[in-house]
Amino acid sequence: MNAAAAPLEPGAPAPDFELRSTPSQMVRLSEFRGRPVILAFYPEDWSPVCSDQMALYQEVMPEFRRYDAELLGISVDGIWSHLAFAKDRNLHFPLLADFEPKGDVARAYHAYRADDGTSERALFVIDAEGIVRWSYLSPVGVNPGADGILHALEDLAMKGVPS
Amino acid sequence: MRATQWESRLTLPVSEDRDHIQGSSDARVTLVEYGDYECPYCGEAYPIVKDVQERMGERLRFVFRNFPITTSHPHAEQAAEAAEGAAAQGRFWEMHDHLYENQQRLSDDDLHSYARVLDLDPDVFGKELAEHVHADRVHEDFLSGVRSGVNGTPTFFINGLRHDDSYESETLLSALQRAAESGEED
Known about the structure:
The structure holds 2 protein chains of 2 kinds. Chain A is 29% helix and 25% strand.
């Protein structure tokens, strides 16, 4: 299938995963059951567009928190790259290393770019029951911003299912 | 694919009462910039905006809103509040220009010295800056930008639609001219 054209769609159960967030800590998606989760796949640490996108999400964090949502960034970079990147850019949310087997989680969300060996720039909002409620695939060079995420969280909060 | 395609539009309409505006409300085209005073790309855009303003003349109205990304730019919030403090004394655009012309020097001491250069009441300016009197306004701008699809700085909106193309002078100018012409057909 052409993963690039179709991220995992709304209504699908979000595939569970366990990935490293620091050299000694693992994060499991199902730990956050009961709260919304924002999964932000991005191609690589350090590239200019990603940096703006992650810095923006850090800045918008208080708004995400108003919906009790947890934000997880994911790329195929290793944990030491993530740590250096987070420190350099002042990011205070987990960056998960989809590193070994490389891109496995991205593939499960239909958000892997096999040609480049990186994930897509793809966003998922997952509800408290672990169901994907909104997904968005951005052109890889375009920072998708945060308005789509906020709209999806708002819809979740208001009626449980986004329009 | 069913994933929502997102169209980015200005969600907080331009208001003559609330916004900092150059140009007439009769202008055919309104250009809104969401900017950060410490952002180097906004610094690059600053003379470009001046250039397109000159070339568009009366057809263009320009609006500036704050979008400080403090994660990357530690002085951006305070600089934005300083510009709003100048606005409270009727000197927004002078401070806006001064900040962009001195982007490397945005410490509190610098901001106070700019207030003196611009002949603002230094006590009022200093008190408002220290007490973050204008923080709510800056945050309101920021949130309106987030909700409108601002994804970094600078982000421009032309007649309410996000300009996703380059903001290089000729590209921006032709987008503005197209908007002016399509307005004539209405």
